[in-house]
Amino acid sequence: MDRFLTLTVFAKVVERGSFAGAADDLDLSPASVSGHVKALEARLKTRLLNRTTRRVAPTDEGAAYYAHCKQILQHLDEADGMLAAQRESPRGTLRVLMPPLLGTLIVIPAMPAFLQRYPDMRVEITLAVHTPDLVGEGLDLAICVTPKPDPGVVFRPLGLAAIRTLASPDYLARRGVPATPDDLAGHDLVGVRVSPGHLFSTWRFQQDGKPITRDFECRLVADSGDAQRAAAKAGGGICQGAHYAVQDMIESGDLVPVLDDWSWTGPPIGAMHLPNRFLSPKVQVFTDCVRELLEGRVTPYRVDWDGG
Description:
The protein is of the alpha+beta class. It has 3 domains: 3-85, Winged helix-like DNA-binding domain superfamily/Winged helix DNA-binding domain (Arc Repressor Mutant, subunit A); 92-161 and 267-294, D-Maltodextrin-Binding Protein, domain 2 (3-Layer(aba) Sandwich), CATH 3.40.190; 163-262, 3-Layer(aba) Sandwich (D-Maltodextrin-Binding Protein, domain 2), CATH 3.40.190.10. The chain has helices at residues 3-16, 19-26, 30-44, 60-88, 100-107, 111-117, 169-175, 225-233, 243-252, 281-294; strands at 49-51, 56-58, 92-98, 121-127, 141-145, 154-160, 163-167, 190-195, 198-199, 202-207, 210-215, 220-222, 239-242, 256-258, 268-273. The relative contact order is 0.14.
């Protein structure tokens, strides 16, 4: 039997002083109300109510039990109300991981307005590019660029992080514009090492709707996307980067896209969180915020995306 319903029925009988009154208030039959009370007394092996033809009143034990029941029911109502309020105004600390350039260029500048909109929230942002252990790292959410999300988590695609190939106008004036990916073998290339032993030496392109790769030795290697962008802007060579991370430099003219006919439309960028039947309001509103910030900076996600 539903213990919550049973406690609710018992408390209502005490308050109304009758089974019929409790039945009316709870939209139950008098027989159902009586059955709940009898089951409760049987489980507790204690008589909780004195019954007469005119009145139902609690025994001493019943009065004491009612006081506890009322407190429990009030706490449950408060908990329900708290969650309902959170749906309207999310609250608490959100711990989120995301790629460094996404954070510094796009998300973090938008945080003052976000926190003003949700004054009961705190946001802790970790900037990193690894695929996180959400539980081990104590994260509520991760914004990741990955073609193969971990099957043990929920991955909500926000778009496709199109990969652009770029160089400074000065470099291209000196060295010429490559016509095909294979031409890059004769150019100075700027790579990025995101962690010890993890050098992005594989360059990704697309031909006839299918992804293709080329491996090159980079002449200049930086350990962050910011440093890579700075090196390319200074004329150090050709680099690759996600469109959202280089859009500002394209618009300013600091970097010029090359090989656009070969640009890869992937991989997916998305919000990663643990499976949960009811998505936390703070996770939902932050994910919605990032989705809005990425509009126009990523390619719309396709459900049939297969790497091309």
